[in-house]
UniProtKB/TrEMBL annotation:
Pfam families, alphabetized: URO-D
Protein name from the UniProt record: Uroporphyrinogen decarboxylase
InterPro entries given in the database record: UROD/MetE-like_sf, Uroporphyrinogen_deCO2ase_HemE, Uroporphyrinogen_deCOase
Phylogenetic lineage: Bacteria, Bacillati, Actinomycetota, Actinomycetes, Micrococcales
Originating organism: Nesterenkonia aethiopica
Gene behind this protein: hemE
Residue ranges the record marks as coiled coil: none
CDD domains from the UniProt entry: URO-D
Listed EC numbers: 4.1.1.37
Superkingdom in the source lineage: Bacteria
Compartment list: Cytoplasm
């Protein structure tokens, strides 16, 4: 539920192999050092630990690991902080996307806007997956109606070897924005995020958005050593980006793999999965729930689960694969293409799920949308935990009143009303 603190706010208010090895060693050293969240962190202090969102992310368990159910069904929306909100458009007028992300006061306010308006059960940090590139000194911009555009694509071994190292001090505007946000959220958790290595590397190779991602798909076969070095660099900066957000106060983190659906199953397993696991390894020992989401990834859901599970299993004796009961299960985000009951059949009932209302139905008649939301709730009821979300991001044209109404509907549905759907 929305916290007293929040609800009382005023509305105005190189690389080659050596670089890859160093990145892996850094992550391993962090794990071996017994990294823990600060004592005043919302999770360790208990402020967000028993929130509905985290209970479901843990697979229906409280902070002590005992079976529990939240007081209401948790819901939040990818891209809930964005162009669908008039207050967002007014605040960002005249400010570029990446400049807004790096202005701590503005980023915090944008993050808070949808929580204030919709009463969702989490805030998702307002940023962009290419922010680590900008912080490293790479010339990248978000071009309106295009997306991320790099001045100098990364396509050769020399290009990869020339990539800059990202200094931890560069995350200062991120950690300040997170701290400002959690100070006002109270018991409502903040979710941090980063782009998955494949998606980030795909932008770097293509230099801009692509329909088929031929560049990175070709590189992983034509020059696998260069691909591994690039994906390792991307995994390192993305993992550290997530870590900076978690250490500053985020209570969970999500790895977005927007373009992994362009890959065949064999290519993902051979050339991508290990890099996603490496990104997760930067945050696996912190005790915060981790979510893995991709679009068009129905055929690799189990491999995405394994990528997160292997990272979470670090330090758990006898659970090297991360798929037994010895370590927590990552949450798997499901896009609108796969029914949640089928996802549970593929991943097992022990796997918490997130999703997957079809964004296309947000403009349908209310009776149609309500029936669809209820179907999604029923389809997700067989999983150990289920957090409602869209099967992709909020479209910019969405009427925000519809989102508010969807949140109210989800919060009103009691467990007794729902008969779980079976695949």
């Amino acid at each position: 539920m929305a916290s007293e603190t929040f609800s009382g706010m005023a509305a105005s208010s190189p690389m080659t192999a050596p670089v890859r090895t160093s990145a892996v060693r850094r992550a391993q050293a962090q794990a071996q050092a017994g990294d823990v969240l600060p004592s005043d962190h919302p999770l360790t202090s208990g402020v967000t630990a028993e929130s509905p969102l985290l209970v479901e992310y843990r697979g229906g368990r409280d902070a002590a690991g005992d079976p529990a159910r939240p007081g209401r069904r948790p819901v939040w929306f990818m891209r809930q902080a964005g162009r669908s909100l008039p207050e967002y458009r007014a605040l960002r007028e005249g400010t570029s996307m990446l400049d807004a992300c790096l202005d701590p006061e503005m980023a915090a306010e944008i993050t808070l806007q949808p929580v204030r308006r919709h009463d969702v059960d989490a805030a998702i940090f307002f940023s962009d997956i290419v922010i680590p590139l900008r912080l490293a000194g790479i010339d990248v911009e978000i071009v309106p109606n295009v997306g991320p555009v790099l001045a100098h694509p990364v396509r050769t071994r020399a290009d990869v070897e020339a990539l800059p190292q990202l200094d931890d001090d560069a995350f200062a505007p991120i950690t300040e924005a997170v701290a400002r946000t959690v100070e006002q959220l109270g018991s409502t958790p903040l979710i941090g995020f980063a782009g998955a290595p494949f998606t980030l590397a795909a932008y770097m190779v293509e230099g801009r958005p692509s329909r088929d991602h031929l560049g990175p798909r070709t590189m992983m076969h034509a020059d696998p050593e260069t691909w591994d070095a690039l994906a390792s660099w991307a995994a390192d900066v993305s993992g550290r980006f997530m870590r900076a957000q978690l250490m500053a106060g985020a209570s969970a983190a999500q790895l977005f793999d927007s373009w992994a659906g362009s890959l065949g199953r064999d290519d993902y397993a051979a050339h991508v999965q290990k890099h996603s696991a490496a990104a997760f390894s930067h945050v696996a020992g912190l005790g915060a729930p981790l979510i893995h989401f991709g679009t068009g990834t129905g055929e690799i859901l189990d491999l995405m689960l394994q990528a997160g599970a292997k990272a979470l299993a670090q330090g758990v004796p006898g659970d090297d694969e991360g798929v037994s009961g010895g370590s927590p299960s990552p949450v798997v985000g499901i896009d609108y293409r796969v029914n949640l009951a089928e996802a549970t059949r593929r991943l097992g009932e022990q796997t918490p799920l997130q999703g997957n209302i079809d964004p296309a139905l947000l403009t349908a008649d209310w009776d149609v949308l309500e029936a669809h939301v209820r179907d999604v709730v029923a389809a997700g009821a067989g999983a150990a935990g289920h957090v409602l979300n869209l099967g992709h991001g909020v479209p910019p044209s969405t009427d925000p009143e519809v989102l508010t109404r969807v949140v109210s509907l989800i919060h009103s549905i009691s467990p007794a009303e729902i008969e779980p759907t079976r695949a």
